[in-house]
Design a protein that fits this description.
- The structure holds 2 protein chains of 2 kinds.
- Chain A has a domain of about 45 residues.
- Chain A has 5 helices and no strands.
- The longest helix of chain A has about 110 residues.
- By secondary structure, chain B is mostly helical.
- In chain B, helix 1 runs antiparallel to helix 2 and helix 17 packs parallel to helix 20.
- The longest helix of chain B is centred in the first third of the chain and has 15 residues.
- Chain A: This is RSPH3 protein.
- Chain A: InterPro entries: Radial_spoke_3.
- Chain A: Belongs to the flagellar radial spoke RSP3 family.
- Chain A: Keywords: Cell projection, Cilium, Coiled coil, Cytoplasm, Cytoskeleton, Flagellum, Phosphoprotein.
Chain lengths: ~300, ~350
Amino acid sequence: PSTLEVKRQRRANKQALARRFTLEQIRPGTPEPVKGREHVHVQTELYLEEISDRIIEVDGECQTDDFLDRPPTPLFIPAKTGKDVATQIQEGELFDFDIEVKPILEVLVGKTVEQALLEVMEEEELAQLLSHQRAFAELRNAEFAELQRLEEQDRRIREEKERRRLEHLEKLRKQKETAEKIAARAFAQRYLADLIPSVFNNLHDSGFFYDPIERDIETEFFPWLMSEVEETLQKKVLGRTMLDSLIRMVVEKRLDAFSHPPPSDQTKAPAEEPTATDAAPQVSGEADAADQPIPENKEADQPVAEE
Amino acid sequence: MAQPRISAYLPPDIDPTKAALAFGRRALPKLHEELQSPELLTQQRALMALCDLVHDPEKVYEAIALGFLDDLKTLLVHQDQTVRQKTTEVLSVMASHSIGREGLIRRGVVSALTGLLDDPVDICRKNTHQIFDRLAKLPEGAGGVLQAGLISPLVLKLKTELDEIQELILGTLSNCLRVEVSEALAAGAVTVLKEKLSHPSTAIRSKAVWVLLEISSHAEGKIAVCKEEVIPVLLSLLQDTQPEVQVNSTGALMFALVTPQGRSSAMGAEAIPPLLTLVAEETSKARLNAIKTLTLLAELPEGRKTLLDHRDTFQRCVDDPSEAVQRAAEIAITVIDWKP
């Protein structure tokens, strides 16, 4: 332990003692010991020390001398040694090209490099733009090709549809034509089937086919027959007309006669009959001169009348 | 002694070929005046300065607003080749900005450029074709090129020009023919392109097939392609080693096979096996186009029979990460399974 520390310790102890005394005066101390016991002050530190009021002190002092001025340095002149040599710097010899040229070179190189960098940047920018353009152009081309492919597909499909539609129309038209043809043919067949019999019938009816004998009979015999019949009938009619006129005459006469006083009716009636019968042959006799075939007519007349 | 300042004087003009630019807003008007000066050197220096300025879109806008394009049009027919070359370069850089493109179309620079197609200097022609190529990427630009009647001269030039310029011409043609195809067909483009299909350079082959793709996306184009028997050549290109050529040739087939004659000639030329190999490859870019072409072929009865055996190939395509390929594969399966 240095003297300073020892001193400090001693001071501290002094203070502690003083404090303790004051404290003992202020506070009540420890109580009195119990019987049979004794309170003893003990030091519990590592090193025991002698506690006393008075500390052993030793004084010592020292002192430096006064500062003296520094004495002046002695003149040092080294001994002359070696050879004497002289040199002279000529004009321009201090010029070191490398050092001098450095700033100029820096400026030159700097400017050149700057210019080169600018150009390289420009080119790089151009190259970037170009690659950008190429990428875009590729995409655009791909899309464009897709568009054209779809257009082409669409066109093909449309053309195909158009062709098929035209074909279908053609087919329908042909079908219709064929159906019409068939219908016309069937109709014509049916029409013509009747044609031949009807033609023949017509011809037959218009008398183009004739049996010559029949025709002969018809054309010659019948007219003659008919004319003869007509004549006979005319004769008959004539006879009847004559008879009618006779009867009328007779009746008128009789009327006249009866308008006068009438003779007996009975004689008249039978007289009428024979007169009628007389008149008839008379009439026939009278008509004889006109018509020869009168008896024949009479005979014909009677069978006709009988009929 | 060394000093950090290099010299007591300010540095001289580093590039004597360029005109000195005025500060700020005054730069372009000053260049405009210099362009109109009668002295050749001034004009050249002004053009060189303008070339560098035109890379900035704001300067392009300003330049067009100041009316530079009319001066440039007059300079296009200058006798000095440097002037012409630089003018075409300025115009081509302008055409890479959209404001520049619009300005060029509106001012009718396209018709002024037709005269330069036969220029003796290679670079002028190359720049001219580059301008056409960049212009044609816009629909209005393509319309402008078509209206200027440039298609037939371009098709003729395809036969005679250098390879690089041919690539540019093919690019221009592909964008223009997307719009209208009759002029090109009249100029016999299909025959010329058929020769180019066997060119050794990959870029020319792939671009030529791209032009054929654009031609066959129109109806008259399809008829012309079938008539000229291009389809067998396209089928042989399917086995080309370069993927871009494969992609483009499958695309051209995709369009050409929409017509029935195309389909029958493809079936006759045994189109299905190479297309199936392209579809089966998982990482091929030509997958989408190949699936679409096979869909077209599956609409024929013989095609459907053959493809029914390979149905599972399409089934695997449905799991492709790209959505377009999935859709195309589903459509293909639907078409294959269709029964009349």
